[in-house]
Amino acid sequence: MSAVRRKIVKERGSEPNELEESVAQALFDLEATNAELKSDLRDLYISGAEEVDVSASRKALLIRVPFRLLKPFHKIQQRLVRELEKKFSGKDVVLVGVRRILPPARHARQSARPRSRTLTAVHDAWLGDLVYPTEISGKRIRYRVDGSKVLKVILDPVDRANIEYKVESFAGVYKKLTGQDVAFEFAPSEKADQADCENFSSGSVDFSGGNLTFSTHPQGGAAWGSYIPGRHTDSNFGQLTITTSGLYSDSEQVYAAGFLEGYLTAQEIRDNWHNMHTYFVEVMNASVQEPMRWIEKQDSWLRGECSQQASRPAADTAEARFWSATCLAVRQFDGLKHGYWAANGGPGPGKYGPMSDWDFLFLESNADLYDIIDWMDPSQRPSWSEGASSDPHEDEAGQKGMGRRHRRDSLATTGKCSALIKLAPDLSEIYFGHSTWDTYTAMLRIYKHYNFNLTELRPAADRMSFSSYPGELFSDDDFYLLSSGLVMLQTTNKIFNDELFELLSPSTVLSWQRIRAANWLASSGEEWAAHLARHNSGTYNNQYMVVDLARFKAGQVLMPGLLVVVEQIPGLVESADETDILAGGHWASYKVPFFPRVTHWLSYETSPRAKIFRRDQANVHSVRSMAGLMRSNNWQHDPLSEGHPLCAVCGRGDLIPDGPLSRGCYDTKVTSASHARKMVAFAVNGPTEGHDLPPFDWREFKGQGLPHAGMPQRFQHRFEAMAVGSMQELEERCLHATAAM
């Protein structure tokens, strides 16, 4: 303990408290074990530490260091803070120097106090300490309506990606130190704005002579919007915003929305089609012709039903509204095709490449296609027997050979996602996290924001924000924030009972179509489940988690119906209110099976991910700590990972030493109830870097080769806010820049 105590020296020889001793212990451990920090930490110590409540759901760890040691601490501050935030999970670590404020001289004979000891100088110095190494480029005093003052601090945008998540903690700590309010903002970056505007596109579409035409004018018409591709963002998620006008019919609005999306994202649509089609045909070695004939039959049947729906008298029944919403989704899909063709110069080779009706159907329905291929081609179904006994415990006797590894890899790569819903212990907040697992060839992403003004359908949710892909009008992951107050997450389950495939029929509604209808219409989890169950295709079978934020009041007992869980297989959709389980602290989802034999296999083989969730969910106290858990992968050191890079919350198949796979976890989206009500989430695209894992790089990947048109070679990206507001700000800056030219 004496060695640890030298890392904290308090004024007047005071004894450190428990928190201060734990910080001192962390510094001592880093000095002993971290080669990068060892020599720099040898002569450093702190003067104190305290926890600061920034908000009901956010805490900061304020560490005070002696003023004379501030400069050597600054030398290693970024690396040190990163390591300390790992040890003190859920807390933002900030360092400030110990400074004393001296009162002004009361008598002429008293020496004048140094300028650095005045109240203003010390407060300014603390501001600099808090945001170091970011430079403060300006300060202003703003007055609120009630007459109170707030200090507005303008920060250099160069470090925005590194510190933006901490500005709330900076403000809370400054309030603790000074009793004064402060608001942090980032100055516009001229260089960044120029780069963004060069890659930012906006426009509108309107009907002329019965046809839609595109205009670069950013507003007006039937639909308008803006887009920036993922290759030009910090997160590698593109962002797309589309708004429609209520002066047009519902059918015209959704068609225009689809057209504008197809026009603005044409390059990415073609790239995504190339990547996914090549993956299905050349990598999966799947024959898609017969499955696609099934999809074409379904499309023909559905359009026939929509024609009949249009000829019927308007009705306000749940079934009629379901069909109205479903047919609007199909109409938007038609707009998407025609928008692409307009940008490309037709369905042929054109500017971007040929895309037929068949190609668009393939891209939009590829999630449903997996199950149809499994049904028609048994060789594509997961195998559980490669050199292994049917008894999963046989490996426990020492035969941990190919059989177990094969089954583990199959299970890790057939299920599509990890999801976690975490309730704060004091009931003040709900945190949501979702990480997608699939082939790395699918890493071409767009986060979409739709704002419809449908006057005939009168949907419960006219606005929706969701992670998605080029050429797809639904999430596919799924991760949705809806203006109805619903948050929907999903994880995928494979079908292991082959007899269920016999229930598949093209005279049904595909998953993506039913999801879009349910998202528009439902105002509760129960309603959402009822709509999903209509005309179940039995394809793309998932577990859906629907949280109704209207039934969540911070600090109050959870209301029934807050969390409704829905599960689909061919021939059956079941749902239940699982709020009582969430009240226990969390709900985790990672491929929940339906059948006893498979249940045994899954509970055995996926236990690492389940155990990691159970162990680490208690450390989620903020959106940031949720992001940390959902990106976590410490497979080389975490005993629960069993020495396998796929046995983690965010697995990396490309790191398997004896047979790398180009599959695994490749994105994360996080939000909270308070953010979701504002339709805001935070997302990053690409395989995780976990605990010091190497970034994924297509050039260095030695395993299975995959097409990756439109993607960066190296994935090393940061979380970024997914919000309509940020796109609107960028659009305004670009318009001002254009006007000034």
TrEMBL record:
The keyword Transferase does not apply. Its EC number is 3.1.1.-. It is an enzyme of class 3 (hydrolase). Keywords: Glycoprotein, Hydrolase, Lipid degradation, Lipid metabolism, Ribonucleoprotein, Ribosomal protein, Signal. GO terms for biological process: phospholipid catabolic process; translation. One of its GO terms (molecular function) is phospholipase activity. GO terms for cellular component: extracellular region; ribonucleoprotein complex; ribosome. Residues 381-410 are annotated as: Disordered. It comes from the Eukaryota. The keyword GTP-binding does not apply. Belongs to the phospholipase B-like family. Putative phospholipase. This is Phospholipase B-like.
